[in-house]
Design a protein that fits this description.
It contains 2 helices and 3 strands; from the N terminus they run βββαα. It is α+β, with helices and mostly antiparallel strands and 109 residues long. The chain has 2 domains: 49 residues, no CATH class; 38 residues, no CATH class. The longest helix has 22 residues.
Length: 109
């Protein structure tokens, strides 16, 4: 077994956590009063019925997947947790680069 591989688990010894799972490829953060609201979304393919040409027929719209509100204290805890987790991931697999991180490195957000 490799260093970072989890130990084998006997399926009879575990119970699945019954909680919703969400996937979001985009995120928006908005302060509303004293809370931070995170809106997770993903693109969903659509067909434009009124397209004037075939190249305009297909597209995508953002579909909200989850809305999560956090107190400032929990937002800070989440920030620190994610910062450490991402650092460990990048130490193992390399730097994660996105359009946002590239803009942030240039000073544009």
């Amino acid at each position: 077994m490799a260093v970072n591989e989890p130990a084998p688990i006997n399926p009879e010894d575990v119970e699945r956590i019954n909680a919703p799972a969400f996937y979001g490829s985009t995120i928006q953060a908005v302060w509303a009063g004293n809370d931070l609201t995170l809106v997770f979304a993903k693109p969903h393919p659509v067909i434009n019925k009124k397209a004037e040409s075939p190249d305009q027929q297909f597209g995508a719209v953002l579909e909200t997947q989850a809305i999560i509100s956090l107190s400032p204290q929990t937002a800070k805890d989440l920030f620190l947790l994610l910062q450490g987790t991402v650092k460990r991931y990048e130490d193992q697999f390399g730097v994660i680069s996105t359009e946002y991180t590239q803009r942030a490195e240039k000073g544009d957000k």
